[in-house]
Fold:
Amino acid sequence: MSATDLIIASTLRPASDSGVSPKANNADASLFAGKMTALETLSKTHTEAANQPRLADLTRKYGQQTDAAITNTMQNVQLMAEKGGVSTEALNAVGATLSAKMGDAKLIRFMAPIADAMGKDSAVGLHEGCGLTMTPAGARAELARFEATDGEHGHALASGSAAQVAAQRGRRAQLAKIASGGRG
Structure:
């Protein structure tokens, strides 16, 4: 169904109830659809024109690996967002600024070294010290250290402070989830 047909279908009854003839409604809908199509085409043209310098900037930096750099950056931002509990809406907003079609070259250049570091397991951990690529075995060892009497959680339990124990709950849950292989 064309845009004109959709507009006609959605406006026919309200127009009729208001005394507008079907012929006049169809003419208005066709004019409106034509204007919207022209605006969409103009928007795409402007976006492509604005995108050319951005892609040229990234191509100077990454050469033939430009698409791979953008994809890698987007994947690693998604991983960071998931680890940080970022909402889907927020992730989509960030994703729009990193997309190949509309992305911000400065943001992509900023995030690319972070993405590279994540791939090399050398990035600073999120969630109070958990590594981004921590293995279940590593998480089990960290959880044992964390829960030991001289660990952070052990100290919180020994203090008898519910607030201190509660403050450690998030890290403990994350370590337990990684230790279980992501189940739980």
